[in-house]
Amino acid sequence: MPDYWTEEEGGVATQDETRDKIDQPRMYKVLLHNDNYTTMEFVILVLMSVFHKPESEAVQIMFDVHRKGIGLGGVYQRDIAETKVQRVIQMARQAQFPFMCTMEPE
Predict the structure, then answer these.
(1) Is residue 13 part of a domain?
(2) For residues 93 and 73, what is the distance between their CA atoms, to the nearest angstrom?
(3) In whole angstroms, what is the distance from residue 57 CA to residue 71 CA?
(4) What is the DSSP string of 71-106?
(5) Taking the model in full, what pTM does it have?
(6) pLDDT by residue (tens digit) across 12-60?
(7) Three-class secondary structure of residue 51 per DSSP
(8) Residue 2 located in a structural domain
């Protein structure tokens, strides 16, 4: 019998549990960047539709973008963050805004 098998009472063989620690996936911040052309209403629309923010939170983040030059859309795993960045840029181009969205490791 292999080393990792043990005999318990009653002659039943069971496998000792060995659990490897699984690393958490790296997270990425999705950032929205201010420009002089994209409307505040569009930024709110993006935050509500792409990031599923309630209107009050979307307005607050929009003001961060407007006043600070950058706002946090959310923190996600890499593939989700990439998809959100692509979706925001696609929406902006369709609306003919130069609005930018990027991601960076948390």
Answers:
(1) no
(2) 18
(3) 12
(4) EEEEEEEHHHHHHHHHHHHHHHHHTT---EEEEEE-
(5) 0.78
(6) 655 555 566 788 889 999 999 999 999 999 999 999 999 999 999 999 9
(7) coil
(8) no
